[in-house]
């Protein structure tokens, strides 16, 4: 979105810092305003060339070693990669979250930690992501994709180090 162009530029700088090290990593951007987010994600899945795919929302942040840790986990040839990080809501209320197929569903722990099954920010085999596909809707496509994807996942590698800061913006 045009209003988040500076966020995208910051994210690209972080990813490009490792660009020379990882020439086989493809970064795709779909800034079209004519499609909803689910449709955009499906288009990008079809255009991707790699064995694994992962989405980073333009207003989120990743760790400086994000790419190297994912590539290392991919060496085990899993269906998906479990990751973790932090989330803020409107810049406040910092919480931890974990993503793994082992959780079986989305839920919140008693301490406020979020537990999720693999979704759009999880590295996943492209062939499985294509089979699951995103619903072509503007909101909630990640949760539905996560449910669909679970049917295809058998193996998982896990990255222990936090690698993703999800900046949730609530319109409420």
UniProtKB/TrEMBL annotation:
Domain Glycosyltransferase 2-like: start-end pairs: 36-95
Domain of life according to the entry: Bacteria
InterPro entries, per the entry: Glyco_trans_2-like, Nucleotide-diphossugar_trans
Gene3D superfamilies associated with the record: Spore Coat Polysaccharide Biosynthesis Protein SpsA, Chain A (3.90.550.10)
Official protein name in the record: Glycosyltransferase 2-like domain-containing protein
